[in-house]
Write a structure and sequence with these properties.
The structure holds two protein chains of two kinds.
Chain A: E1 6-12, H1 15-27, E2 31-33, E3 44-48, E4 64-69, E5 83-86, H2 91-102, E6 107-108, H3 110-121, H4 128-135, H5 139-149, H6 154-161, H7 165-179, H8 184-194
Parallel strand pairs in A: 1-2, 1-3, 3-4, 4-5, 5-6
Chain B: E1 6-13, H1 26-36, E2 40-43, H2 47-51, H3 60-70, E3 76-79, H4 95-115, H5 118-121, H6 124-139, H7 143-166, E4 171-177, H8 181-189, E5 195-197
Helix pairs in contact in B: 1-3, 4-6, 7-8
Classes of the chains: A alpha/beta, B alpha/beta.
């Protein structure tokens, strides 16, 4: 019955930023802040980006990195990064993002999604075969893809449809498979193009 | 999505009594729900109120404990209240019925304060006491109010059933005012083919 706590570390930024963020994370249910060198390693490292550097720490492969960032200087998620969270988001959203990346899912703030998609959209075309693939999706899967294209997190999609997060993740796995994509960003990009 | 059977548990809540200096307070309620961490949480707020973010008429449990807590968690709220009208709203406005119902409500409050922990509130002994007092109380409501209360509980169960049918195989926690338990349990048990009712600790 006891909740499995997610171990989270905080890095990057300035000391005061890290302390504030660690206190906020510790106040959210089911999350526990641990030192970055702790054994077992943290499941999630929340890394505060600064303008001075884009260096990220070396972490264990099973530690997901969630970047807390101000803008989308990216065209997709950098390889080692699992999530991008805008600093404009609410504290509750931080909890959602941490849980999502801890489960091995990607997380992208909707404001950052828009910027990323705008950058990538110009570079890519749209094929007839994509339309036929989209037509093979079920109504529910199309509904979820549409909400994904709006940049909603899995929790928000689930809440909008009154489904559990696990069910939405199951649908997303099917959607990725059918679309032949490997990431949330690719699925979003395709969804935006066919809208 | 999932062929495994839905598990559903009922957690009796105590409305404004959670604010009393008792061990089963709103913090305790939050901890229980966080520990159980269900996939879906059915609670007493109307769909309209939930979608508009208007918690003013929601039960105190939802407004002050459950909604703020699940905002940062993966628990999805299923608003199941058919209307904002709650148990205490059914008290007759005046006259001898009003006085009798008020006294029964006091007895119920006394019982709830005396019980003072989640295991007892949701246990069978207190359930029998609660059932008796609530049944007696309802006898002194107007026939219209009694019919409305029954209809409300039926609609509430229908909303729970719809949620389970929409997303089967999940862990569902139903947090409702404990006054509803004796009405809801028999209604929920008629849907045995859809879900298995378990104790909240075993969800």
């Amino acid at each position: 019955m006891a909740l499995n706590e997610i171990r989270v570390s905080v890095g990057g930024g300035r000391e005061l930023d890290r302390a504030g963020l660690a206190a906020l994370i510790a106040s959210l249910p089911g999350l526990r802040v641990v030192p970055i060198e702790k054994n077992p390693p943290p499941q999630v490292l929340v890394w505060i980006t600064t303008r001075d550097t884009d260096q990220y720490p070396a972490v264990q492969t099973d530690t997901a990195i969630l970047l807390l960032t101000e803008g989308a200087a990216y065209e997709s998620l950098p390889e080692t990064i699992t999530g991008l969270l805008s600093k404009d988001e609410s504290p509750a959203t931080l909890g959602i993002a941490i849980r999502q990346v801890a489960r091995g899912e990607q997380y992208l703030s909707s404001s950052l999604v828009t910027a990323i998609l705008q950058k990538r959209q110009a570079k890519s075309g749209f094929t007839d075969s994509e339309t036929s693939i989209i037509n093979t999706l079920t109504d529910r899967e199309r509904e979820i893809l549409e909400l994904l294209a709006q940049g909603l997190s899995n929790k928000l999609i689930a809440s909008r449809l009154y489904l559990s997060v696990r069910t939405v993740e199951g649908h997303l796995a099917n959607i990725y498979l059918r679309l032949g994509v490997h990431s949330r960003t690719e699925a979003m990009l395709m969804a935006v193009r066919i809208r | 999505m999932n062929a495994s059977r839905t598990r559903l548990a009922i957690l009796g809540t105590m409305s404004d009594l959670h604010r009393q200096p008792i061990s089963y307070d709103l913090n305790c309620l939050q901890k229980i729900v966080a520990d159980v961490s269900p996939d879906l949480l059915c609670a007493e707020i109307t769909k309209e109120g939930w979608e508009q973010g208007d918690f003013s008429q929601a039960s105190v449990e939802v407004r002050e404990a459950l909604a703020p807590m699940i905002a940062s968690m993966d628990i999805v709220m299923i608003p199941v209240a058919p209307s904002p009208k709650q148990y205490t709203d059914f008290t007759p406005d005046s006259g001898w019925r009003h006085r009798i119902v008020r006294n029964f409500n006091r007895l119920l409050r006394w019982g709830q304060i005396w019980a003072n922990d989640v295991m007892t509130i949701n246990g069978s002994g207190f359930g029998a006491f609660c059932h008796t007092v609530c049944w007696l109380t309802e006898m002194f409501w107007s026939s219209e109010d009694r019919a409305l209360w029954e209809r409300q509980n039926k609609q509430l169960v229908e909303n729970i059933v719809h949620a389970v049918q929409r997303d089967s195989g999940r862990r569902v926690l139903v947090a409702v005012q404990c006054q509803r338990l004796h009405s809801l349990m028999p209604l929920l048990k008629t849907h045995d083919e859809l879900f298995k009712i378990v104790a909240y600790q075993n969800l």
